[in-house]
Amino acid sequence: MNGKVLLVDDEQHITRNLEKVIPWSMLGLTIAGTAKNGVEALELMMSEEPDLVLCDIRMPVMDGLELVRIIRERGIACDIIMLSGYQDFSYTRSAIQYGVKDYILKPIPYDELTGVIARVTSERRNKHALEKEEQRKLQRIIDLANEKILYDVLMDYADLTPDHWLMAGQEQRIEEPQYTLIVLDIDVGSADARDWREWRNKERKMWNFAVCNVLRETLENAELQHVVIQMRDGEWCVLLLGCTGESSAPAYSEEERERLREQQVSLWTERLLLSVRQNAKLQLHAGVYRQVAAMNELSAAYKIVQRGMQLSTESRPIAFYGSEQTGVYETDQALWDIAERLIGAMKRGDAEGVNAEQRRIGEQLQKAGGGAEGRLKPLLHFLALHLMRELKEANLLSWEQEEALWRKMDLRFGVKDLFAAIQQASSEGAARSKDKRKHSELQMAEAKQYIDRHLFRDLSVEEAASHVGLSTSHFSLLFKGAYGETFIEYVTRQRMETAKSLLGETHKSVAKIAKEVGYAERRYFTKVFMKYTGQKPSEYRMALQGAGSLVHDEEEHEDER
Known about the structure:
It comes from Paenibacillus rhizovicinus. This is Response regulator. Keywords: DNA-binding, Phosphoprotein, Transcription, Transcription regulation. GO terms for molecular function: DNA-binding transcription factor activity; sequence-specific DNA binding. By secondary structure, this protein is an alpha/beta fold. The longest helix has about 45 residues. β3, α3 and β4 form a beta-alpha-beta unit. It has 4 domains: about 130 residues, 3-Layer(aba) Sandwich (Rossmann fold), CATH 3.40.50.2300; about 160 residues, Alpha-Beta Plaits (2-Layer Sandwich), CATH 3.30.70; about 110 residues; about 70 residues, Arc Repressor Mutant, subunit A (Orthogonal Bundle). It contains 21 helices and 10 strands.
């Protein structure tokens, strides 16, 4: 795209010559207009927004120096080259003070001026490219932070009160309906998943990472605001920001708008499934939350979709679920609730709790009577698969044990045998969990030490979990249980406390402190610091050290505007 140039000189023959002699097209510029004085130039700048201004110094009504002063006061982002027939140094000095890029004496040496314009234009484009790249990096940093926060939100680990210090920026809008939630999952019991089941942990980890990249790239190419989060092995949650596909036109009824939105979301979900099938060579199925969800509704929405996908006996690539469906089948719902409590007890190593939930499953089967073999057998099969995946995610199931259980599952045996498999797997899981409790305490202590040593750089929950040999979801659960806050809350708190110490005890600039505590972007650091303390970094430092200790750092002040 060409830039715009404004020519300002009271001598019309000079502006005509400039228009004709300078190779504007070759320089990537077009002439937005000409003006005879500063007043006319300001009027043109309101509508044209030029990138470059060539301006004479001595003009009637408003001279060039006054024009430049007003341009800088108003914060108009343009480069300026001054033209003058006067060699007085005071003019040059004034021009330099206002940030003029260059000063050309009349009569104008057009070859020299062309070179100056080329240099100034090149510098401007390089600056814009650098700013764009910095903005991209900042956005990626914010996106990564949001992913970490949203994972904790989906898993119901995070505190979502509006005044929570971690809810900075867009995350603060927790009560606005803004997310379309899609869960993508591999049908672990299907024939299509047999190759996936045979992969070892390293292969699966690489494949999970590849699928995340496929999903992100598909959504980025479509220019949809999104977050992609791996929830567990073979399951992802895609959050689309806003009411994707929903028409707000008054001509449509509420029912018609909902139908149009559902059609549009279905199209996007089909595109995601197709991309994974073409690029990762695996068949997934999808569950979509029918309504849009606010941040503080995401955890419930995720559980509804996940539960609906597990309880469904229909084989559909895309299905919609809503809160009105949670009580459709009383026995199905009761069994799922029992299974969730069973898994929780198993992860805690609570043998008595596991036994109690096993008894409740037996009672539900007796209550179902003859219907158990029909409708409940598929449900029990799904629950057994769900239990296996949770055992695997909690690092309570070895690859050999998993392989043996898969062989049993493939036989599709009856309700009694399915129930026995659930009992055996959950009892063994609870025993292993109890044995691993002390080991887990050591793992969390090691993870905490690792985190503290690497606060100075971008540290992900996946990296910390991998360091102690745990899956992300199990690590997050253990960390919250051990320290009473999520990984991202702990990391951010430690960084903010370190920053407070550095601001109070040193004269380092805000930019340097931001980097030392792990923030590549000063603006994002300032944003989080303000949310955490209620003050800008420089204000916090002044309160501790007094006005005489202010650091004269232009970067710092620019950062906090």
